[in-house]
Predict the structure of DNA repair-scaffolding protein isoform X2.
Amino acid sequence: MTRVCLLVQDAYGMFSEVHTEGTIWNNQQLEGRSCSLTGVKVLQKATRGRTAGLFSLIDSLWPPAEPLRAPGPYLVCGEENTHLPPPSFCYILTTHPDLGRIDVTEDPISKFYQPPVTRSLRDVLQTVHPGTRCCFYAQVIYQRPQLSSLLLLEQREIWLTVTDVTLQTQGEDDAGLPHTMLVCVTSGCMLAPDVQEALTEAAPHNFLFRDALRDQGWLVCAERTVLLLQKPLLGMDTQTGSYELTGSPRLDELGPNTQVNSICSVQGTVVGVDESTAFSWPTCNLCGNGRLEQNPEDRGALSCRDCSCVVTSPLLRRHLQVFLHCPLCPQSTVKVKLLQASISSLLRSAACEDGTYEVQSILGKEVGLRHCFLQSIATHPAHCITLEEIELLKAGRASVESHRLPRDP
């Protein structure tokens, strides 16, 4: 049975959170409508100190759009609604499984309803204060961890790197703004089936993030945050303010302010190689798997345990981590685990006649801009930044929208 959480407000300004089953309103569109609730009971009285997340959502809807009915708990006679103190408590309600009902009493949208204000990521960074809720459209260009099945979504913290057209096409007045933002999807954020499926695909997707929390350095999707999967647009829609984001996204270069779990572009000069972790292994030239075994009956020929084929021309894969001197981090040791293509490019002129590689021939070589994920920053015994080269999600066409949508229950 689907469980649904509704945030409701009465004419006196009192908020309540209603926990109910998704079948009792018979698929009615409730958001913004005046409704009557029957068969409900109070579970608990919630206060700001105990349920900060709930009150951050209530604060985003305060003050009321219309004057409250007097005498209410928050209204003094003659006081303007713009000067009302925000609620200090609310009630958590639940519906009786057999007697609970939610009925729409009026067709028009209620005057108390406040549709969400959807902002661009640039506006979020410039105008939304930490600890407050915000709504925005964004394209996911990288995800960590990469999830191969829906089962891995359970009890996992997911880090998404997102961007939109306002961060990618910055003007002179946007100096200091990043080109991407970090979004942490906590295990408490309930995800719809289509969103879960999208997060297991190795492809970019566009989401509407509703009521996400602005943190100091990133955005948080926790309880009461809603993610809605958006369809990509085929062009610009001047009526709704929708934009098409095409091409390879621009990343910020690695610097002193780059955060752990974020992605960045890295370039520098090779000053060392981690020889203790350098190794190579053969893989199947048909399926790419490294589960090869020798067949003693066939003169030690290699066979693949996955595709059950004889491997006559195995492909050699390598693991290599290098130390770089980076212009923007001159006082830091920068260690990068390279992808296969970068390793091959770096070793192309360093091979010896016996098939080995000379470390000295690699030192001093330039490594051009690479997309990397920042794994960790250590300060002792030396300042060391550890990164892993990555590939961004391959995009066909993507969109970023800026029009309003109704707030989901």
